[in-house]
């Protein structure tokens, strides 16, 4: 959502009314995964965060929950003023430093991190159990509980924004059957507590030596396990498994002091909720990353897949979900999806060259940079039309000989070299980190592989860059 002068003007007027001072400066804060707009507004003696959200029902949920949490003694931002007719409100300014920032600066095995997480878990239980008794679930948006409809929304979000955009193969009906099985199973545990919904380190602020919690407007009634799974299996937090296990046991021991918990049953359902949370997160990463082209979300995908791999390798979810398991195997074994990007500036430019089949679509740019080149090789002669080449690829000498007898593809490549060389040289001068170049043909087998291999040799001989090459249809052959 783009900020308009009207939104900011309304917020400044609300701020000046509350502060009884003129605003001296204001600026928009970075957006994350929502369409809400946040502004920091500053006067001589006061500061606040102004929020514009055109979803009135979500605003009502947030304000109602905040009042309840404050009454319970939980550290959430004060609401200084609100004008719901204009979909705006003012919040206490808690700074910009999150638990996630703290984790990134420390070794995840650090005792200080463990201590903070235990403190966070103490507060989580208070949100879920103590405040959960007083929450007005009638204001929850979009559902009063994490019921079957909510679960199926998450599962279908995953299907349409992750599986389809990542080009994962599945049978629609078989997958729907598994979705229903998983949803039914998840709801057989106790689902009568407050579920924060997005309880993770980016929504936990460290301010004035205290821990504060934000972004709970999507809360509703649900199972205890979901929020704990969200916290401990947050993809980019990348907590070591031994720390996750210790914190799981800590949560159970603390929760048992105020409610009755069967540890074996709790843990069994906990890992099922870890699974649904990973699925929900991958759906969000697909939408924000593949669809909206936001690089941070694309770069988070491999970390979520590592969590998925741990669960599928080590945990037995006691229901039959064969279609989902097949999908998980495809995701976990995907070279494209599991490549971690170095978020620090690399020493030199990385040029990623792929071959692909137009039947499957252009490969994903996992770097998140977008741009680059897509070259259509289908105007060149196709060896795949002849029986003797059908089982071969563009790397086999027989196919290479075929192309040597037909000079057309070399003319095509000469033009490719001129375009790519120009970009590589500009990227090197400007210290860019990634360039992606794709070659497509009908089956992704002969022409595209031949062109990708030749471009890789050309660049390697001419420039000092890192070269990564993927033959998306035939990597298993090489």
CATH class of the largest domain: Alpha Beta
Mean pLDDT: 92
Biggest beta-sheet profile: 5 strands, antiparallel
What gross morphology would you assign? globular
The CATH architecture of the largest domain is Alpha-Beta Complex
Q: What is the spatial order of strands in the main beta sheet?
A: 1-2-3-5-4
Topology:
Blueprint: H1 5-19, E1 25-28, E2 37-42, E3 47-52, H2 56-72, E4 79-83, E5 88-92, H3 99-105, H4 111-130, H5 148-163, H6 172-186, E6 193-195, E7 204-207, E8 210-213, E9 220-222, H7 224-232, H8 241-255, H9 263-291, H10 295-314, H11 322-332, H12 335-338, E10 350-357, E11 373-376, H13 397-405, H14 408-429, E12 434-441, H15 447-462, E13 466-471
Parallel strand pairs: 10-12, 10-13, 11-12
Antiparallel strand pairs: 1-2, 2-3, 3-5, 4-5, 6-9, 7-8
Helix pairs in contact: 4-8, 5-6, 5-9, 7-9, 9-10, 10-11, 14-15
Task: Give a structural overview.
The protein is of the alpha/beta class. It folds into three domains: 5-92, 2-Layer Sandwich (Phosphorylase Kinase, domain 1); 99-338, Aminoglycoside phosphotransferase (APH), C-terminal lobe (Aminoglycoside 3'-phosphotransferase, Chain: A, domain 2, Alpha-Beta Complex), CATH 3.90.1200.10; 350-477, no CATH class. It is 47% helix and 14% strand. It contains 15 helices and 13 strands. The chain has helices at 5-19, 56-72, 99-105, 111-130, 148-163, 172-186, 224-232, 241-255, 263-291, 295-314, 322-332, 335-338, 397-405, 408-429, 447-462; strands at 25-28, 37-42, 47-52, 79-83, 88-92, 193-195, 204-207, 210-213, 220-222, 350-357, 373-376, 434-441, 466-471. The strands form four sheets. A five-stranded antiparallel β-sheet has the order 1-2-3-5-4, with helices on both faces. A four-stranded parallel β-sheet has the order 11-12-10-13, covered by helices on one side. Helix 5 packs antiparallel against helix 6 (172-186) and helix 9 runs antiparallel to helix 10. The longest helix is centred in the middle third of the chain and has 29 residues, at 263-291. The chain starts with a helix and ends in a 7-residue tail after the last strand. The mean pLDDT is 92.
